């Protein structure tokens, strides 16, 4: 297991081999701007509660979600600015923005990989974090010895994962045992047909 500090300077390459590339940049979005975007989105009416079949019964998904196409005329201004900054920083063109609101320490997302059938092959996934710092686990699916990265995603940070990493790694945000405030994740993707 590899654990990374919150205090790394500049982009940190976490993985760069045949199984994919993962890069973390801590301060892509200045603190004041990240805080402002967090407040605007947190108080926005965009959030919805999804329900899903889990453990043979329908349960609330343990977070709130929202989704926008990049070209959506109703794209909230914080998302428009975030999209411009992410595209400029990565040199990529993203057409989809998925949002997750982790309201407190009880909200989470299980280990998973993004559905590759929905994504344009070869295009990365970029995550911007706003609000409370949360730990992400990244774990190899098949690797000897197994690889696991534990990464604290700070407000204003960018995590860039290549398309190939979704073949070889799962990632998730676990529940925590200590009190935490809200965190918003902005996930920029290039989807097929969007």
Number of helices: 3
In round numbers, the mean pLDDT is 91
The SSE string, one letter per element, is EEEHEEEHEEEEEEHEE
Roughly what percent helix?
Answer: 10-25%
Kindly report the CATH topology. Jelly Rolls
The strand order across the widest sheet is 2-3-12-9-14-7-6
Number of strands: 14
CATH top level is Mainly Beta
CATH superfamily assignment?
Answer: Alpha-ketoglutarate-dependent dioxygenase AlkB-like
Question: Would you write up a description of this structure?
Answer:
This protein has 194 residues and is an alpha+beta fold. The chain has one domain (19-47, 63-189): Jelly Rolls, CATH 2.60.120.590. 15% of the residues lie in helices and 39% in strands. The protein is built from three helices and 14 strands. The chain has helices at residues 31-42, 77-90, 165-168; strands at residues 2-4, 12-17, 20-25, 51-54, 57-60, 64-69, 96-102, 109-112, 125-131, 134-140, 148-153, 158-161, 169-173, 183-189. A seven-stranded antiparallel β-sheet has the order 2-3-12-9-14-7-6. A hairpin with a 7-residue loop joins strand 10 and strand 11. It is globular and about 45 Å long. The termini are far apart. Residues 1-8 have low confidence and may be disordered.
Summarize the structure.
This protein has 194 residues and is of the alpha+beta class. 15% of the residues lie in helices and 39% in strands.
């Amino acid at each position: 297991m590899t654990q990374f500090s919150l205090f790394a300077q500049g982009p940190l390459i976490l993985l760069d081999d045949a199984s994919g590339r993962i890069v973390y940049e801590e301060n892509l979005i200045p603190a004041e701007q990240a805080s402002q975007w967090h407040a605007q989105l947190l108080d926005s009416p965009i959030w919805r509660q999804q329900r899903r079949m889990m453990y043979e019964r329908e349960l609330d998904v343990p977070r709130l979600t929202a989704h926008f196409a990049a070209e959506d005329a109703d794209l909230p201004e914080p998302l428009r600015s975030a999209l411009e900054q992410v595209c400029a920083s990565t040199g990529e063109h993203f057409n989809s923005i998925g949002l997750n609101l982790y309201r407190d320490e009880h909200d989470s997302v299980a280990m998973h990989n993004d559905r590759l059938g929905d994504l344009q092959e070869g295009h990365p996934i970029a995550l911007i974090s706003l609000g409370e710092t949360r730990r992400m686990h990244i774990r190899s699916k098949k690797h000897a010895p197994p690889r696991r990265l534990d990464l604290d995603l700070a407000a204003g940070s960018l995590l860039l994962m290549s398309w190939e990493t979704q073949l070889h790694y799962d990632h998730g945000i676990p529940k925590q045992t200590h009190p935490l405030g809200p965190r918003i994740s902005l996930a920029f993707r290039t989807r097929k047909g969007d």
